[in-house]
Design a protein that fits this description.
single chain; oxidoreductase; NADP; disordered N terminus; about 325 residues; two-stranded antiparallel ribbon; 8-stranded parallel β-sheet; alpha/beta; NAD(P)_OxRdtase_dom_sf; globular; Aldo/ket_reductase_CS; signal
Length: about 325
Amino acid sequence: MLSLVILLSVTGVFCTDKDGGKAFRIPLNDGNAIPALGLGTFLGFDENGQKPVTEHEVDYPVTWALEAGYRMIDTAASYHSEDQVGLGVRASSVPRENIFIVTKVPSNEQREVVPSLKRSLERLNMSYVDLYLIHTPVTHKPDSSGFDNIDYLDTWKGMEETKKLGLAKSIGISNFNISQIQRLLKNCETKPTVLQVEVNLNLAQEDLIKYCKSHDIVVMAYTPFGSLFNREADPIATRANDPILVELAKKYKKTVAQISLRYLVQKGVVPIPKSVNKKRVEENIEVFDFELSAEDMETLSKFNKNYRVVLPSFWQDHPYYPFERVDVPAKDLFSG
C-alpha cells in the first residue's frame, strides 16, 4: 500500500503537502486537500449528559497532536472546545497555514449560518476554517427548546455563503444519509467536499462510502474505534481483546487501535480519533509506516455488524432524522 500511495500521489489521486505532517493529503473536489487523519476533540457523554470541557483538557492534546505530526484538528460549536482548540494551535510550533481546522454549524444555529461561523472563528481566534460542516440535518430552535423546521437546502445556501466570503475554504456535511445527499446534490451551487459520519470495524458503511466516492465526496470517520474500548456497547460489537485483532497487532508490531485506523486509511476514509492521553495521541498518528495486506483487509472487513455506536434516536421524530428509527428512543443526552 505504501508504494501505491506514492504512485497515487504522483497521479493526483492522493497528494503530498509540505506541511511537516505525517499524513498524506487527499484532494477535495474544490481544489483543496485534506490530511488523511486528524484529531477529534468531542469528549463524549457521562451519566449527567455531555461532558463539560475542563481546563487544558483539549488544548494540551491539540498541541501534543500537532507536535507529533497531526495536521488536522476536528471540533464543533456544540463540543464547546473551539476556544481550547485555538489555544492548542497557538501553543504549538506549527504555523496556522499548515493546519487543517474543521468545525461545524450546530443544530440550533442553522437559520444564520454566517453569524454562527463568525462566532466560531472568534472562539478559535482565527480568520477562517479549512472545512465547515453542517453538523446534522436535524435542527432545533435557537434556545434548544425543541425541533425547528429548517430545510437543510436552506442551511446549505448559508454554507455556500461562508465559502464565498472566505470564512471557510471548503464546506461539507455530517450525519447525512444517501437520499439526503442526493437531494442536496440536485439543489446546490457548490457540492459538498466531505461527509463526516461514523465508520469503524463494526459499521462499514460500504454503500454510503461507495456513493460518496462516485460523487467525489471524501468520507471522514468519527468514532473510528467503534466499540473496541467501549465496555457498555452491545455484546455483538468487537472489543480490543478480540483474538484476531490481537494477532494482527502482533504481526504488524502495532496496537489494535493502530490496526483499526490503518484499515480505514487504506479504504480511503479519513479517521479522526479522539484521545486526551498523550501517549495514545502520539500512537494514533503512527499508521503511515506500514500497510495491511489484502488478505488482512478482507479479514477485518468481516467484523462489520452494521452496529452503530452513535445513534441519537432521541431526535428520530424530526423529519430530517438520518438514521434508522427504533421502537424505544434513547434519553436525550444533550438535555443532561
